[in-house]
């Protein structure tokens, strides 16, 4: 069924929970979505850096072919981008049954990119589902309860390759590459922290923090996560769909154990949020969890969504600005 600007699917599983499908394109205060300029195919990574290569600021859509699969990515270069200075790169992953364009609108991260001068890329998953796509998270079921098809491409390999290829076109500081994502994208980002810790300096899952097991990351990975306490899709306390069994605080605690942080976290309560912060971690790392009081399956501080969306995903909150907080965390945690 269609509700305004969001497509939703009702899943007949454990209480017939309503799951997020494909999200926002041209909703809230953005008006109609303008067509994206197609910038062609990303060239394969080479020893050459993208520094000195002229590319327009703003959003461009590229294609990338990997192992026979044609993939899509939207890249937003900040205002004033010249290609002469190495900039951080943030990958921002959409949720299950959604798209890259929807995530660009849902997270509102282009404005943060322009203000803080980093490149943000919105890759698109490849497993068709509803009106969007699902990520291939190794060994984990999708929102329909099924495992990814055996023919599905490796998204870990795709996202690592994407970073290298973007660095061949844009002027990227490879010591400052980060990943965020919402829901299924947050779960995919959690996987990247384990399987690609030499590529991604830190991660910031939104409504999707997990601790993959096994986790072969050879370094302490800085983690900042955001989750609404009233999330009806991926419940804060766990006991959700087959891919969502344990609680978000448990996931943060497991990451703190991996990073060899102090056993007892520091806790802070603010207006509309509760922060749990693990410090004393290896390599100066940290694990932070922002629990947003009463918020649903939303992007904290993100663009205002219409009632057709919040009636299903739950309330929004501006108690914290996830984009501002994760960028400050990223900036403090480059690869050493």
Task: Describe the fold and architecture.
- With 336 residues, the chain is α/β, with parallel strands linked by helices.
- It has one domain (2-331): 3-Layer(aba) Sandwich (Rossmann fold), CATH 3.40.50.1820.
- It is 21% helix and 27% strand.
- The protein has helices at residues 100-107, 109-116, 155-169, 184-195, 248-258, 307-313, 322-331, and strands spanning 2-3, 6-10, 18-22, 37-41, 58-66, 69-77, 87-93, 119-123, 127-129, 132-134, 172-182, 202-206, 223-228, 266-270, 273-278, 287-292.
- The protein has an eleven-stranded mixed β-sheet with strand order 4-5-6-8-7-11-12-13-16-15-14, with helices on both faces. Strands 1-2-3 form a three-stranded antiparallel β-sheet, with helices on one face. It has a two-stranded antiparallel ribbon with strand order 9-10.
- The longest helix is centred in the middle third of the chain and has 15 residues, at 155-169.
